[in-house]
Write a structure and sequence with these properties.
The protein is α+β, with helices and mostly antiparallel strands. Helix content is 26%, strand content 19%. The protein has three helices and four strands, in the order E-H-E-H-E-E-H. Strand 3 and strand 4 form a beta hairpin. The termini are far apart.
Length: 99
């Protein structure tokens, strides 16, 4: 089975959002992370992204799964990604807290 991919669509001008860096470190063995800038209109159109930020999980089978949480926070996204990662990550482990 291929490793699921996570795409963050962002309108940040440069750099990687801190929350996304922390999440990528916590799920580095179970998910692959990618960043899509607002300027990449073809990808935004393909995934029907009209509002930024937007987050998707892509698996080898099925449709892309969009994060539909109320708030774009570390804990909400962590919970969403944990459900879709290949291996469950303990949210209470000391290594998982944002630094």
């Amino acid at each position: 089975m291929a490793t699921p991919k996570v795409l963050l669509f962002t309108n940040a001008k440069k750099g990687t959002p801190f929350v996304y860096k922390a999440l990528s470190q916590n799920f580095e063995k179970t998910l692959q992370f990618g960043l899509v800038r607002e300027s990449e209109a073809a990808l935004a159109q393909k995934y029907k992204v009209k509002k930024f930020p937007a987050l998707f999980v892509l698996k080898s089978e099925g449709r892309p799964l969009r994060f539909e949480g109320d708030k774009f926070t570390y804990s909400n996204i962590f919970e969403f990604l944990n459900v879709h990662s290949q291996i469950f990550v303990d949210p209470n482990a000391k290594d998982n807290a944002p630094k």
